[in-house]
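Journal club prep, notes for RB
We'll compare a predicted complex against what the paper describes. Inputs for the uridine-diphosphate-N-acetylglucosamine case:
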Amino acid sequence: MKIDLIAGARPNFVKLAPLVDAILQYRKQGCDLDYRIVHTGQHYDLEMSQSFFDELNIPKPDVNLDVRSGTQAEQTGAVMAGYEKLLTDEKPDLCVVFGDINSTMAAAITAKKMHLDVAHVEAGLRSGDLEMPEEVNRIVTDSISDLFFTTSRSASENLKGAGVDESRIFFVGNTMIDTLLKHQKSLRPPTDPKLRDLEPDSYLVLTMHRPKNVDDATLLASTLKTILVCCPDHKVVFPAHPRTAKALDKIGIEDSRLIASPPLGYLEFNYLVSQSAAVITDSGGITEETTRMGIPCLTLRDSTERPETVEIGTNELAGTRPETITPMLKKLVSGKWKKGAIPELWDGRAAERIVGHIVEFYGL
Ligand code: UD1
């Protein structure tokens, strides 16, 4: 069986890495499995893409569609056109897509129209907020997938509620956590002199990239000021996504406690998180990593598609306005944050289960 693994942006690479390992393990045991890594090129900067392949030992992509940036429709259309051409030349038996980015949805639609089976890793997540492009991507991808691999029981329930046959839903755990656990011992301090000698617990890690939070420079400036005022005893380390860096340049905020840097590699970023007092973010994946590490986490959003990070883990939602963020920030640095527990099956073996189910489902 030939499997296409589709990846386009940072979080995809982290989810894909353990699947490659698991496929190779099964192959060693005599399973007839082969894979092709298709990088859509949605993320292309060295630190947004190549550094993840290097640090997580992911084999070089077999193909790069090189779609790069664009509007939602331009990016989606470019992935569809590029992947269709690739499939016309050489068609695998199964297309595996990850998460909720534009590349995920675009590749899933293209594969389905070429009569391929589609497997969705991290299926069934729903934030209920259709203003997020990712929510549209999740719903569309799940509406045409054939196999559904979920990170939580609630995601499996969402799929059942949408009419998906139970025999195609597999609760397997979280491949992002597989990667975290595999590399936990290799996490390393950043080489950037501004970040190298930070005392453990003396700082917060901040990440923001959602258009809603960063495209409006006034809102971004007010969020940063609120964080600095509410957390007077902590430095704020802010590795800025390219989208955010553009907005930061415009507002030109200066504060000796705010340490902005370019995006960091996986090993340095998670080292900083592991030693931090707490994390403030609008990412979904980071709320899962902090939950697994037991690090307090505040999410600058009104909703989450990952409710277990709040119900079981260390995450809380704070909204996006200064009025709602302020009391939560004070609580975050008060030392009285909840401890949290580890969600079911977030044990480092999700990818192994996924490949096991594929092997069994197709009788390989
Ligand atoms: C995408 C995903 C989001 C994911 C995030 C992780 C969608 C809709 N969003 O958001 O779910 O959480 O990746 O980072 O697919 N840019 C660069 N260099 C790069 C990549 C992007 O400069 O290597 C710039 C682009 O020019 C653009 C902006 O960053 O201005 C946004 O990139 P894009 O891929 O559209 O979406 P993300 O915000 O990264």
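Talking point for the session: The radius of gyration is 20 Å.
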